[in-house]
What we know:
By secondary structure, the protein is an alpha+beta fold. The chain is built from four helices and twelve strands.
Amino acid sequence: xxxLIKFSSYSIFLLFFFGSLGCRESVSxxxxxxxxxxxxxxxxxxxTEAISPKFHASHEPKKKNAPFSDAVSAGNFLFLSGQxxxxxxxxxxxxxxxxxxxxxxxxxxxSVLIHHQxxxxxxxxxxxxxxxxxxxxxxxxxxxxxxxxxxxxxTFAASGLARNARVEIDVIAVK
Length: 175
């Protein structure tokens, strides 16, 4: 049975734009998604299949019973939960202040990404929460070493981070 799906000219533009970037789920309406692949073939599938979230169990044994997922994938996106500067082997914040905690938080993010066959270069967005905005400069010195491609970022200060951490970072990566 043949099915006819109508897309606007804007949708077709998005198909070619995102398709040229190698994206798979790029153009959709409320019923279907057009996908491209490396072979430049097109396929149409239900939108719910393209973006249904998958909640991933933690790769850290001590976090298996946490009330949240370390990562959730939806389409080509991987959303990571916030990471603080905790050494997962000891379950304690690393000593050394904002620089050490930032480095450990980013290493934790890197570890989760690697577990999902991704890397820091795949990060497109970061959200950073500092317990003290005066730590902004020291934080940036470490952060910039991990993200030379400069993903989009939001940074703000808030008190009362988990375990009295000085920084928490969450990211969104693209597969």
